[in-house]
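Anyone? Bumping this.
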Amino acid sequence: MKTALFLAFTFLLFGSSIASDESDPVLDISGQALQTGVDYYVLPVVRGRGGGLTLDSADNETLCPLFVVQEQLEVDTGLPLYFSPVNVEQGVVRESTDLNVIFNASTICIQGTLWSLVYDESLEKFVVAAGGAAGNPGRGTLNNWFKIEKLDDDYKFIFCPTVCDTCRPVCGDLGVIIVNGIRRLALTDDPLKVMFRRA
Ligand SMILES: *[C@@H]1O[C@H](CO)[C@@H](O)[C@H](O)[C@H]1NC(C)=O
Ligand SMILES: *[C@@H]1O[C@H](CO)[C@@H](O)[C@H](O)[C@H]1NC(C)=O
């Protein structure tokens, strides 16, 4: 009897610690959990308003630096990207956890292909640029950490990093703003609803 009680008690403790520590895995369009270090396309859920996420310069006259933008055409999937969670042991990409998001592509620009939030003075908005190095969670890399959250039956990206206890980052949803005809990923009140397809 004592043993049975003890077992039940440890099960309760163990079970509840799992429930509180681990959020749900993010699922791709075939219902499989997203894996870390595996390439996916990020595609829009709403039809007729642009395609997958890719890299492009901010206008048609410069080549660099690069920003995260949405393809103009719905049929274009954009570039494959992969996720590297703050807890590299994870293996599975989970909702609401800090992630580096990295396009698996080579560019002529020197900045690299990691998502990083930057403030654009002329737009007076935070936009997602390419740049920085993966890993090293903390104050110095605060702008490189994004999260995926559930939005109805699909997902959205948010910026609200928790890799630094004493930092007070701006927090918000990532959506699309159109500047010079380019569909740029930025902090907005209108999140881009996305789904993930294995590349
Ligand atoms: C990046 O792409 C290359 C070439 O397609 C592939 O071999 C490699 O596994 C990819 N790396 C990651 C981390 O997805
Ligand atoms: C670049 O885009 C602007 C505005 O969209 C346009 O007026 C201009 O002609 C374009 N320049 C080139 C070189 O295509």
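Late reply, but here is one note on the structure posted above: The first strand starts at residue 40 and ends at 44.
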